[in-house]
Structures are given as C-alpha cells and as structure tokens.
Amino acid sequence: MRIITGLAKGRKLMVPEGNNTRPTLDRVKESLFNIISNNLNINDSKVLDLFAGSGGLGLECISRGAKFCIFCEKDKNTFSYLRQNVINLGFSSCCELYNHDAFFVLKKCSQRNLKFDIIFLDPPYSKGLIEKAIKSISEYNILDKEGIIITEYDEKDILPDKIDNYVKYRTEKYGRVRISFWTEEEINE
C-alpha cells in the first residue's frame, strides 16, 4: 500500500498483518480519487476518515493538499500503525488522531462545529455501521453542503439509495468491494 500522488507520492504505508483490516487496494484508491477529483477540489479540503485503519484514504487526501484530516480508528494495534504512518509522512501538523469509537468522534466533531468536505466510511463489513454513521452525520450536520461521503462495503451488504437527507449518486464495484458516493439531497421548494 502506498500514497499514489502529491507530496508523499510513492511512499509506502505500514499496515498490520492479518485480517483485521482491509487496506483499500492501490488500483481501487486511484479510481476512487479520480472520481473525487471530478466532483470537488481536494486542495484545502477538510477530511474525516472514520474507521481509518492504517489511514490510507485520509493520508492520500493530505498528500494531495487537503487542509487537515481527522482520523478515527478504534483498534489499538491498528491505531499504532496509523500513528506511525502520519509521523513517517511528516503530516502530524495537519492530522488529528483518535483511538476511539467512531460515534464518539462524530459527536465530538459536532460539538466543535466542524464541517467536512469529504467523509470516508469503511467500517467492518455486514454490521450496519454505514447506515448508523450516515444517520449520525445527518443528525450532527457535519458534512459541508457541497461535501461528499464515500462508503466502502462488501457486495453482499445492501444499502438503500437514501439515508436521512443523503442520497447515493454513484456506486462502483471492484471485485467483491463496492464504493458508493453520497451527497446531500437537494430539496426543491
């Protein structure tokens, strides 16, 4: 796993061994960031990487010029890899790391009145965490009006086309993985 482009282009990321994490493959990440770049400017964006694992998606954003990224990883062992990756890439000044539950971090972001341009959700598969997280994002109103939510999930997991006030506008399939893009529903008055 590596950073594809930007300040840290080509730098490798440390990932824990075993099946506890599923780092996004480089080819999937490259396609994902091509899609993101067509929808918004990553430069100076504010990013939230929940269920961050070793941090590949949020760190890619920082490498591409994002203003800052908040990372949340609950597993202590995986969190240690995330922390080391941030240090190794020299991105400590623009990253906040939380070794905590994702829903605690969402509430804390709301209390700080933070708004994000990009929110990544790549939780453990088949546990209903994507729907719960999107509902919390909606409740706390932490996604910028022009922002996007990007979800990664197993092909067996079924997500509705709309969760609260967010609609799924695009889904890509890579092997057994699906990546969906969400935006706030436009309400016509």
Overall description:
With 189 residues, the protein is an alpha/beta fold. It has one domain (26-184): 3-Layer(aba) Sandwich (Rossmann fold), CATH 3.40.50. Helix content is 31%, strand content 27%. It has five helices and eight strands. The chain has helices at residues 26-39, 56-63, 76-89, 102-111, 129-140; strands spanning 46-50, 68-72, 95-98, 116-121, 143-154, 162-163, 166-174, 177-184. Strands 3-2-1-4-5-8-7-6 form an eight-stranded mixed beta sheet. Helix 4 packs parallel to helix 5. The termini are far apart.
Lay out the secondary structure.
Layout: H1 26-39, E1 46-50, H2 56-63, E2 68-72, H3 76-89, E3 95-98, H4 102-111, E4 116-121, H5 129-140, E5 143-154, E6 162-163, E7 166-174, E8 177-184
Parallel strand pairs: 1-2, 1-4, 2-3, 4-5
Antiparallel strand pairs: 5-8, 6-7, 7-8
Helix pairs in contact: 4-5
Briefly summarize what is shown:
This protein is α/β, with parallel strands linked by helices.
Provide key terms for this protein:
single chain, alpha/beta, 189 residues, globular, 5 helices, Rossmann fold, eight-stranded mixed sheet
